[in-house]
């Protein structure tokens, strides 16, 4: 139904072009822009719903990916800040222990342990952030796959109904 209307509108636009006055010494024609814009608006309105849905799916995909990227960047930034805080605490603890002469050796061992724990915790946070982002993207891929399958079914129905 919408396809016939689109074809009729295209034919109507061809008629407008055929009936327009030509510009001397060129292949150009002079047309009424209001008439052309009106036809273009009608063409947009006559587009099948599936095309509009596909545009919405694409826009939604871009929005979700943008949100996922922002979330990932925020989580990574938070992880880096926490890493820096933990390292700073470890340095401060190390300096404190070193300043106490009688336990200098113990202080070095304790500082090494704290730094090692801080690095392990930082790696754990980093891995959790990557896992979270992976889950977000996997969910998006599954949603888009389902939407793409539905759009393909709709497209086939339209082609079969011709």
From TrEMBL:
Residue ranges that the Swiss-Prot or TrEMBL entry lists as coiled coil: 62-128
Keywords: Coiled coil
Record protein name field: ATPase
